[in-house]
Amino acid sequence: MFLGASDRGAQLIQTLTYQAFQYSSMLIPEVADTPKPIDDAIRWGFMHESGPFEIWDMLGVAETVEQMKAAGYAPAAWVEDMLKSGCASFYQYKGDNKVGIYDVNKKKYVKIARAPGLVVLSELKKAKKIISENTGASLYDMGDGVACVEFHTKMNALDDDIFNITIEALDRVEKDFVGLVIGNEADNFSAGANIFMVVVAAQQGMWDVLEGAVAKLQNMNMRMRYSARPVVVAPAGLTLGGGCELTMHASRIVAAAETYIGLVELGVGVIPAGGGMKEYMRRILNPLMRVPSAEVLPGLMKVFEQIGQAKVATSAEEARQFGILGPADRVVLSRNHLLAEAKKEVLHMAATGYKPPAPELIYAAGRGALAALRVGAWAFKEGKYITEYEGVIAGKLVNVLTGGDLSRPTWVSEQYILDLEREAFLSLCGEQKTQERMWAMLNTGKPLRN
To answer: What is the pTM of this model?
Structure first.
């Protein structure tokens, strides 16, 4: 659109684009025999979606060359030689896949070498490796005794279809496979729960349905955590809310380096209810409170701030600092290799005799810490850092984080915290201001602070 327009802004875009194409073509064959290494460098080094020659292919090489020459940015001579030889693009395509690349020295397409063991879900689908599927998710046989669940809803939002396929996958893995990968090739692993379903159910008073959905997510996550077979989750891109909670219950996480992950539910007026708060308490409070004479408030404040401020880690390594990734979890730089590395991790864990973790009690600080956090939330509200209603949400949050109105600190079961999460979530869903926040997010894509 910009390349075809004539205003000053479009002229700037045209100049920058044609200059980039000209410069990139001049680098060959000095720094590479083919365009592919340059495209790879731009995508991997600068996190661009496409390199210059990939973009050039999209625009049409022959047409763009004429426009570049007319604008005074003629490409390197080899580009026109390529076109004269009958090669109309830099890449050779088979369907949507790149199978070849033009080699300047050989003056023909050469096959693109493929990394051994690379997993491509579209190829598994063509090979009829789908075990089960519905409109929200698919279950694949990846080979070597490893199964894979792929989400394919809009933004991979979690819904009942995804729950059903994942539960079926856990059933099948116990009998027929050595382990399970949960991942996909979309830009985003999961943007969270389907809030349209949530707000409609709340407004229609379908509380049994809503509670059943939350309980289903909780039970699915807990089953993943204590599965006898390793369950490896491979997040990438946006991994928010319920997607983050699902990831935190994996036996092992193999994350793409560019993963944006966090519990953001407060932005739509609720608290995490899929076990995310329970996991933060287990990971941050439990180790702290096993130390004699330790103070719980610093740990509680860290968890409270991360959830209360809806903090999102901007990389997988930052997620490790948050406590979302653990010391044994891995980070993969190449997005294309993520599923293959997740599969390798499943096979490694199975080969080394994976055993699920033992059930763990959660430290609940009780009413003393609850009062202290309530005072902190009140101070934020009085200082106008949060709205009146955000103070209500914060009250629900701290109630769960401290285990409720317990007379003294104690260790409670995971299910106890899950029940508190679910109760708080449902009560907030019934509030008009929460419903307004959900509709605002659905209609504008931005959080409403009411």
So the answer is: 0.89
